[in-house]
From TrEMBL:
Top EC class of this enzyme: isomerase
Cofactor: Zn(2+)
Name of the molecule in the record: mannose-6-phosphate isomerase
Domain Phosphomannose isomerase type I catalytic as annotated: residue spans: 5-155
A GO molecular-function annotation: mannose-6-phosphate isomerase activity
Domain of life: Bacteria
GO biological process: carbohydrate metabolic process; GDP-mannose biosynthetic process
Record: residues binding Zn(2+): 101, 103, 138, 267
Family, similarity comment: Belongs to the mannose-6-phosphate isomerase type 1 family.
Listed Pfam families: PMI_typeI_cat
Record EC number: 5.3.1.8
CDD domains per the UniProt record, alphabetical: cupin_PMI_type_I_N (cd07011)
Keyword Isomerase: yes
Length: 408
């Protein structure tokens, strides 16, 4: 295997919150069983690795290939620093809102992983928090016309106004004024379930009525609360994650806009499709809005409980008139660029580190410096080994996302 560029096939995750059409359409799959297609993974995560597609149509594990050829596939520098492909590229289709979640720092992930290993918790146990030793900062770019998410805490003034103007939550206002945001959030997250039900039951009913009568927009917390419950026959054991919807920033990204989420920033995806790039990890601490394992105490230990102003990333051309734009992130594990144009064009560049390129719109022909070609259709992807000069040729409308390691 002396090729420098390989076609790869990712792994689909059929989580219940996923949509039914977007990812199957992207991958040219007929979803006859009407299964939810939530995520499409491209990378070398040990539990869900992509596969290299050889010229004869057979496949081998990208994870195994990298393990067997680390310096060729990663470069000496990337291998010495990370010991693996340090990023994971995904496509998400969010039909139902995801869990309120936080990702740990690298040091805390290592500590948590070792503690759970020493406790004898199986790596795939449902109640396991740390499935690997890595942190999980992530950047995402909207593929849909709108992508909605929760991202960090609102300003103190906005939270105070929410408490004051929401009758069912106004009982929390004295606590917030006297002891602050951290005490408020810890109180509602640790509240007994019976008290959660008592506080939120009437509020949920009210928001359901408001949404049904057109009194709410997606910028209102109540719109998302109502969406969560509008198909429920009864209100029992109301999810405490609802408090976060009222306390967090509600962000709407337009197509092509992105956002970076660092360790400790609480967030939740609400609706839409995106491409997402993260450190090679599956460590998620959850606090609500999910049937998966919830560990409030562990989440609170790692959450940045302070207001933040969401910073929307617009994508900046790497050079004047370049078809390649970058979404800058303050991490060394990964970088995400978009390559986009209309019409017939050839684009030449060099992969200094390992790259994965995914075609989300249109297709292209990629040629390495030996003259060997690979045809990549919409929904397909390729893995490029380090120090490879390559050319991309395409006509029509093309939109590609490139994941790579910043030059260390």
């Amino acid at each position: 295997m002396q090729d420098k560029i390989y076609k790869i096939k990712g792994k689909v995750q059929h989580y219940a919150w996923g949509g039914y059409d977007f990812i199957p359409h992207l991958l040219s799959i007929h979803n006859a069983e009407h299964k939810p297609y939530a995520e499409y993974w491209l990378g070398a995560h040990a539990l869900h690795t992509s596969e290299i597609i050889l010229d004869d149509g057979s496949c081998i594990s990208l994870y195994d290939f990298i393990q067997a050829n680390p310096e060729f596939t990663l470069s000496n520098k990337v291998f010495s620093v990370f010991g693996e492909l340090p990023f994971l590229l995904k496509v998400l289709d969010v039909r139902e809102m995801l869990s309120i979640q936080v990702h740990p720092t690298k040091a805390n992930a290592l500590k948590g992983f070792e503690n759970e290993e020493n406790a004898g918790i199986p790596i795939n146990a449902p109640h396991r928090n740390y499935r690997d030793k890595n942190h999980k900062p992530e950047v995402m770019v909207a593929l849909s016309d709108e992508f909605w998410l929760l991202h960090g805490f609102k300003s103190l003034n906005a939270i105070e106004a929410t408490l004051a103007n929401t009758t069912e939550l106004s009982i929390l206002l004295p606590l917030f004024k006297k002891q602050g945001l951290k005490a408020l959030y810890q109180f509602v997250m640790e509240m007994e379930q019976a008290d959660v039900n008592a506080m939120l039951h009437t509020l949920v009913r009210k928001e359901l009525h408001k949404k049904a009568t057109g009194q709410l927009t997606k910028f209102d917390a109540g719109w998302w609360v109502a969406k969560l419950f509008e198909n429920s026959d009864e209100l029992k054991n109301i999810d405490r994650g609802i408090f976060s919807i009222y306390f967090f920033n509600i962000v709407c990204l337009k197509k092509g806009e992105g956002i970076f989420q660092q360790a400790g920033v609480p967030h939740a995806y609400l609706e839409g499709q995106n491409v997402e790039l993260m450190a090679n990890s599956d460590n998620v601490l959850r606090a609500g809005l999910t049937p998966k394992h919830i560990d409030v105490a562990e989440l609170l230990k790692h959450t940045i409980i302070e207001p933040i102003i969401p910073e929307v990333l617009l994508g900046k051309p790497i050079t004047l008139h370049s078809p390649e734009s970058e979404y800058r992130c303050p991490v060394s594990d990964f970088a995400l660029n978009k390559i986009q144009w209309q019409g017939t064009k050839q684009y030449e560049t060099v992969a200094a580190t390992p790259e994965i390129i995914l075609a989300v719109e249109g297709g292209f022909i990629i040629q390495d410096n030996t003259g060997k070609n690979k045809v990549i259709k919409q929904g397909e992807a390729c893995f490029i080994t380090p120090n490879t000069e390559y050319k991309i040729n395409s006509s029509g409308s093309v939109q590609l996302f490139k994941a790579f390691v910043p030059v260390l």
